[in-house]
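Sanity check

After download, print the first record. It should look like this:
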Amino acid sequence: MTIRYETLEDIAINASVLLTFIFLFHWLYPLVSKFSSRWVSVIFGIWFGVTGLGVMIDPLYVTDGVFVDFRTVLVALAGTFGGGISGTIAMLIVGGYRAYVGGTGVVSGLGGIVTAMLFGLLMNRYEARFRKPTLAYAVFGLLVAIESALWFLVLPKELNQYLFQHIAIYMCVTYPLVVIIIRYFITHEIRKKETEGKLLESEEQYRTLVEHSNDLIFRCDLRGNLLSANKKFMDDIGIEAKELRDRWIFDVLGFREDLTRWQELLSETVYGKTPITFEKEVVHKNGSTHLYVTTLSPVLGMDQQVKSITGTCYDITRIRNSERHIMQLSLYDSLTELPNRKLLMEKLNQAIAVSDEQSTRVAVVVADLDNFKLVNDTRGYAFGDELLNRVAQQLQRLMSPKDTLARISEDEFVFLLEGIDQLHHLLTRIQTIQDEFQYPQFIRNEQIYSKMSLGIALYPGDGASAEELIKNADTAMYNVKAMGKNHYRFYNNEMREALLKRGRLEEALRKALIHNELILQFQPQRDLRTNQIRGFEALIRWVHPQMGTVSPLEFIPVAEQSGAIIPIGEWVIRTACERNKVIQKSHFPHSIISVNISTIQLQRPDFAQMVIDILLETQMAPEYLELEITESIMMESFHSAIGNLETLRDYGVSIALDDFGTGYSSLSYLKQLPIGTLKIDKSFVKDITKESVDDSLVESIIILVRRMGIQIVAEGVETQEQLDCLRQWGCEYVQGYLISKPLFELEIRQLAAEQLGQSGFTRALEYPHA
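Expected structure tokens:
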């Protein structure tokens, strides 16, 4: 048995083969890794197998067909890093060559190769479970050495003893070392490639994110010169890629006029090495201005010094607009865009503080549109909103820059007038406002009078706080409403009591129908041609259990302002029709019943239908119902009321114009109204027996109106002389205390009995009842 020990040359050759393998792996792996995993496994197997051939050509130890080298290590590692395909290919290449060489150690060599491949596959499967990979691979190399040494047992006894004594120890030392070295370089390359791949993927993701971001993203050097920017930045600012390096970011961000501020931001970013954030408006290429939250972030180099700066501009224009809109909603009226109650209170508190410092006065003027509820009810809320907008614009034009105009409720506006030094200046302002609303407005081709009632409270005399001032000005305004509207009044303490009384009256009035406190009386009307009763005017009375009899002059205005006139008016029409049916059946078969109608009732679109329904319900013929309207319809609701009047006239209901001569109407208006009767007001009748202008005026009215085919009723006839004049002038009907006071239904029976006896009835006409 000839034994050749390894020489330095053999060791150098084997080491150079392994180093060549490592070098080639370092050079070729980036190219190989581009293939699919299956092809990578095949290449790994060939690679490790060929390297195994290289170390087998010049082994470290040879004796009679037995030689020792690192082939088992390479086969094991092929299985470890490439899996079953790689390990099998490497095993076949190395094992095939060992079988070809033959010799005494062929079985031992082939067994070691196969066993090493199996160890490699086990390592491939369980490698991830090891917490200390280096130690695990050292043990793995030792196991490959041991299994290779154990295959020496199949050799002749004398040979295997020698190999165990001299070679096994050598293998147990070198195999783990070779495994660790090769594993280190292979793992390093694999991880390096994976890292490069992840880095490229991350860079691509970042580039995609930047390019498709809705934010403006840029990079600049430490002087502010632009280096790069995303597409959004270039599109919005209007810069092409080739122009980037010619632009300065501080110019783009609008710092040209404030370079000191830019230098502060830049220095804070560079020397502080931390991101900073600020808000800045940026002008786009289309001329629009957007508000951005801009963040400047330092980019550090390997030496931890700032090399460049990246910036991200997040558009908060919509957010700020939304915030401003929310603020607008919280402090301003959404319809007129005037300050609301909250903002008014803030401004009023500020004005009070200034007034205390400068010893001046503050005026709070509450202005309320007269009859606005009626506009909403009859023309709809859209029409009402349009009117409010028009009024707000008119009022705004009357305000000076230091004044405040606010809208605090549906149709209620407040003027805050500061620095009042002389009262006559304030009165001039108030009168200007009043004069502005003496003329009609045209909305949707319709003429609307939007007159105002104004209440005024002065600080410090009329209240010590903003809330108290507004409350007292409101009280003064309601006092104007109660006195007839379309005027102004200053607050005083008596108004508070009057307002409380009015409130109690309004509350009691709402319950009057429920408690049956309302009753009707009937005042007869006489036909001067036949001396017969033409009919009766229904007059409402309110008998309250605590307040006693309340005058209609007192509660009707309250009913109109509160809206209670609607159910009360319907009750009056229905009750009047019901009682007239009884009167017709028992006493006066052809009597007419006259009912006074409020303008507020008449403006309701369903008024005509309501009257018709009542006539059908009570089964009273429409020609026996006469509705009396006042002259105020000419100014307040002519266009909206005329439809209801024409519908009722066409149905057969008579229409009478009440209190003629006290309002705004003229004889020319009578042609436009569908009236059949005109009632001359008692103020004209009162003095007709005196030689006066009224005397000839009443006569002229009677003559002209009769020529128009309209019947005449004179009200307030109290003397025989008045009656004689009216009969002489051709007046057809009269009404007043000379004829009869208002009667209850039971008293009408007595009147009927008197009419049966001619002389008795004549006396009833000649002498007024007590």
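If your output differs, re-run the checksum step. Summary of this record's structure: Residues 168-211 form the longest helix (44 residues).
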